[in-house]
Amino acid sequence: MATLLHIDSSLFPEGSASREVTAKFVEAWKEQHPTGTVIYRDLAAQPLPHLDAAAAAGGPDHALRAELAAELEAADAILIGAPMYNFSIPSTLKAWFDHAIIAGHNATPDSAVGKKPFTIVASRGGSYAPGTPREDFEFVQTYLRKLLEGMFGATDIEFIVPELTLAPAKEEMAALRPLAEQSRTQAHERATAKAKELAARLAA
């Protein structure tokens, strides 16, 4: 029986592109692996405190950090909703990483966490893809890839990127709405396919 750790960090309980895609992933995961387990954390509904000196010093002996690290260790796969806020990840997600990553405990060269597959839904209101005017402002994928590789030695990292999510609501982006809908559809399809593939592989 495989376990999925699902983290959402969008501020918005409704109308969130990242939540929409992570929900598709979880739906497909459960269909493929109905006896599996899903550990869920909604960092907007229940935000974590910023890491302070006591928690940092406590490491794996600090209750909250131990709980979050244990969830990471129990998971066979990790799904993270990471919308772009001000060109980076939500502060709530940064707080989760600050608590969950513990040097010498799970952040080691041979970390078991690094052997797990990570799927990250990196939604954004515009486009920061290679060749676009704001390519240099893309700090979500670059940061998270370096973080997961550098702290855990992770090698199985897949990004699903629904972009132009503000196009339906902004008249100045009206011409981009077909591309936004195409991106949304592709993100849903990739999430469904990835969830089924992982669930089948890990449940075998």
UniProtKB/TrEMBL annotation:
Checking InterPro entries in the record gives: Flavodoxin_fold, Flavoprotein-like_sf, FMN-dep_NADH:Q_OxRdtase_AzoR1, NADH:quinone_OxRdtase_FMN_depd
Indicate whether Heme appears among the record's keywords: no
One Pfam entry name: Flavodoxin_2
Top EC group: oxidoreductase
Listed EC numbers = 1.6.5.-, 1.7.1.17
Residue spans crossing the bilayer: none
Residue stretches making up the Flavodoxin-like fold domain: 3-172
Q: What is this protein called?
A: FMN dependent NADH:quinone oxidoreductase
The lineage, from the top, is:
Bacteria, Bacillati, Actinomycetota, Actinomycetes, Kitasatosporales
Q: Which gene encodes it?
A: azoR
